[in-house]
Every structure is written in C-alpha cells, then in structure tokens.
Amino acid sequence: MPLDIDVVRPPERLAGARVLIVDDEPANTRLLERLLGEAGYTAVRATNDPLEGLMLCETWTPDLLLLDLHMPEVDGYSILRQVTEPERGVSRPLVVVLTADVTPAARERALSLGATDFLTKPFDHLEALLRIRNHLATRRMELDLAEYAGALEERVAERTVELRESLEQLRQTLEQRRLLAARLVTAQEEERRHIAADIHDDTIQTMVAVGIRLELLMRGLTDPALLDEMNALRATVSDSMSGLRRLLFELRPMSLERGGLADALEEYLEQAATAGGPAYALDASLATKPAYEENVVLYRIAQEALVNARKHAAATSVTVTLADDGNGVRLEVRDDGRGFAPDLVAPQRGHLGLPSMMERAELSGGWCRIESAPGAGTTVTAWIPLGSIAEDPV
Ligand SMILES: Nc1ncnc2c1ncn2[C@@H]1O[C@H](COP(=O)(O)OP(=O)(O)OP(=O)(O)O)[C@@H](O)[C@H]1O
Ligand SMILES: [Mg+2]
What we know:
The chain is an alpha/beta fold. Among the domains are: 5-123, Rossmann fold (3-Layer(aba) Sandwich), CATH 3.40.50; 254-394, Histidine kinase-like ATPase, C-terminal domain (Heat Shock Protein 90, 2-Layer Sandwich). The protein contains 12 helices and 10 strands. The longest helix has 95 residues, at 125-219. The model has no long low-confidence stretch (mean pLDDT 90). Bound molecules: adenosine-5'-triphosphate (ATP) and magnesium ion. Adenosine-5'-triphosphate binds next to helix 11 and helix 12.
C-alpha cells in the first residue's frame, strides 16, 4: 500500500534530524532509507557494519538510531548499552529497536537497556514512520531544553559577574564613606580646636585684661552712681567670661582626649546640671574602648540630644546610657519631657540637630533613631560599629 506522505511528513524543524540505521541486512537498511527519504527526512545514514554504526554514533551524533538486535560480531544490545550511557548527556541518541525477534525477553531486555521503542519486523511502515516522527519531536524538545538551560546558565553567569562588580563598587563607595567620615570628624574637631584656642588665647585673655583695668579704674572712683555702673559692668564681663569658658568646654572637651567617652559625658552632665533644668544620670558600662574618632561621633550625638532635651523637652530627668552592643557601642539619651512627633518635623532652615545626629551615625556605618511622641518623652538611640571609622588618611 503506497504511503500517504502528508500523514507522515515531518514538520520542517524535524526534517533535518540525523537518523542512523544500523542493520546487517542490506535489504532492511535500503527499505528504511527509502521510507525515510520519501517521508521527507534529509539527514539519513545507514550501515550494515555494526562497528561502523558505533563509530558514527560517536562522530556523527545521530538524534535517532534505528537498530537491529541480532548482528554478527557486535550485537544490538551491546551497541544499545554503549550509546545510552547517561554520561553522554544530550549527545545520547534515542534508540528505536527494529528486530525480527518477537520474544518478550528480547523486548524487555532492549527496553531495560534504554531503548525508546521496540518494533518487530515485518513492521507497518506508516506506524513506524509516525513513531519515528514522534520520537524525533521529543528529541527536539530535549535539545531545545538543553539549549535553553545553557543560555540560562550563561545569563546567570553574566549576572553573577555584574553583581560581583556592583558589590565591588558598593564596597568602594562604603570605603570612601568611611574615609569621608573620618575626615569629616577630624576636620570638624580640628576647626573646633582652632576656635577654642583663639577664644582661650585671645578673647578670654582680652576679657581678663578688661576685668583688671575695670578693677583699677574702680579704685579711683568715689561717685556711688558711677561705682554702681562699674559694678554692673564688672558683672557683665564676668558673665561673659563664664559663657566663654562654657563655650570652650563645648568646643573642646579635654576629658574626651584624656579620659574617654564616659568621663567626657560625665563632665558634660555636671556642667549642664549647674545651669539648673532636669536631673541628669549617666549609666555607662563599656568594656570596649572606642577609638578617639568613634568617641567623638558618639559624644557629639549625645551633646546634640542633650542640648535638645534642655532646649525643647522641659523634662524633669534625662538619662544617658552607654553600652556595648554587638560589635559596636550603643548610646541612648532618654528624657521624660513633652516629646514631639518626629515625622512631622519638617526640615527647616537652621534646624540641623536631628539630621546631623543621623548623618554622623550613618557616616560611621551605624544608625540613629529618634523615638518620641507628644507627652511621652523622647529617646535618641545611636549605634556605631567599632573599628569602622578609618584612621585619618592625611
Ligand atoms: N528632646 C526633645 N523634646 C521635645 N522636642 C524635641 C526634642 N528634640 C527635638 N525636638 C523638636 O524637634 C525639632 C527639631 O530639632 P533639631 O535639633 O533638629 O533642631 P533645633 O534644636 O530646633 O535647632 P538646632 O539643633 O539646629 O539648633 C525641635 O525644634 C523641637 O521642636
Ligand atoms: Mg537641636
């Protein structure tokens, strides 16, 4: 019966699939070659020599192998065993066994060795071609999938490289921030030191001289009205000097350089207490010893939070806590004052306290949080890691 070509014709993408026929009987290979050719397959090869068939499996890597079982020298089973080894991956062909052996044992053995299909001779041409086409469609899908997996792997590898580069950039940015933080802290402190030195050596000395001259002037005065005037002037000078000394202390807390953070904060709180206002308490239990730059960052944050508590909170008590926390130090300044809504504080010109606290902490690789609500007091918590602020590189 002539073949209905339209029924068995492979779609275009399957017509070029490589099909290898291995059968020791030339009549069989001829028949199959003819059938496949008529159906529209363009890459068909055949051999009557099983050894050549094995070699072609290696060099030509067929998609489908049509294999006879009983052949001299090398039988179909041993070819089957070799070409279906799992290590071959996608270069492993699908195998359709075509044999005159109709015993169930042959069928079971061939299938268990990895044959995809088993047809007995004489076979129905139409059925064989339809099966071959279906198997090749599966094979095509397998190849597409492997290609897709390969492309995917390539993309993953590309993305990994990109990610690694971004990570490296991020690391460099962080490194720059660390250096910047160190410079910022050092530059600010340096500037404060200069101003403090000027106030100490120049302004305060001038005020002292003014005070002495006032004393001298007053000795020669007898007019009570003038004396009252001079006394008021002397008191003003003395007040200004106290103010300047306080400023000096704010600008350059010597104890931060000599002692440490806890000492400096204690001194600061003592000073603050003399001006009245809330009761201050310090709870410092640091086992670690932060570097000078780290102490400066924490000290300045505490200073800002304490100034805010004094200026805005109308608190009765303020507690400062210093504690080791993970690989860093945590500072907490808590007041029981009137509180405020931090989310509603719009950035205003000249109101730099809250942002500057956060900036200082973040530049040091840490963080600063402000918790507050109207009527519920305010807690400023800052944490900075130790060992993250680089030594000043200059
Ligand atoms: N402890 C606090 N208790 C109550 N209100 C506070 C407290 N801390 C801050 N605030 C409120 O948040 C606002 C912003 O504070 P911030 O420190 O940023 O600016 P400032 O203190 O007004 O000015 P600057 O600090 O720049 O001198 C304050 O004006 C105040 O209303
Ligand atoms: Mg402030």
